[in-house]
Design a protein that fits this description.
Radius of gyration: 31 Å
Structural class: alpha+beta
Strand content: 15-25%
Length: 191
């Protein structure tokens, strides 16, 4: 009968070892983690809209004189624009804050009251939230201008911010709320 206590002791020793070894490894890992020198946190990777220090200086923009009706329409639009577009905060402008707005650095700009472009049949037009936009690619920006509103609105999106159309949604919502549709809509913008 002496074999029974030996078997019980072995089983108890195996269970104690099976529990003690993982607990010891866990305690050792926690101690190593807490006692090792801290590495500085890695800087967040820059995204197209967070390219480093953001300027808050006024953005240089032209402010041509507007007739009474376009000036009123543009004031209504600018008073309703959001404080930020996506993650770009609004910045001051050098001229015409009643008709111009700027966001981020490099600035996405909004200019109200300019000339409406002539749309040719082969031109790119896009319908974004019920607003028809005419797109022109420039060297470093995409310029989008409304072609279906009583006062034209031009948005300039630097290529560094990626696809230009993604920036139009909040602006288009504000345009729909503050500027009436006018004139014929190009065939590419009919829903």
């Amino acid at each position: 009968m002496p074999a029974a206590p030996d078997r019980t002791n072995r089983r108890a020793a195996l269970i104690a070892t099976a529990v003690a070894v993982p607990v010891a490894l866990l305690v050792g890992a926690l101690a190593l983690t807490n006692l090792s020198p801290r590495q500085p946190a890695a800087a967040p990777e820059a995204s197209p809209t967070t390219l480093g220090p953001q300027s808050t200086a006024p953005v240089e923009m032209a402010a041509p004189a507007l007739a009474e009706r376009p000036a009123t329409v543009c004031r209504a639009l600018l008073s309703q624009l959001p404080a930020s577009i996506r993650d770009l905060p609004q910045r001051p402008v050098t001229a015409g804050p009643e008709q111009n707005a700027a966001y981020g650095d490099p600035a996405v700009t909004v200019a109200c009251g300019g000339a409406e472009p002539e749309v040719q049949p082969a031109d790119h037009v896009f319908l974004v939230n019920s607003v028809c936009w005419h797109a022109v690619e420039r060297a470093d920006v995409t310029e989008l201008t409304t072609v279906d509103r009583e006062s034209a609105v031009t948005v300039r999106v630097p290529h560094v911010h990626g696809e230009a159309l993604q920036w139009l949604s909040p602006i288009s919502h504000t345009i729909v709320a503050s500027i009436r549709s006018a004139g014929p809509v190009p065939s590419g913008c009919t829903a």
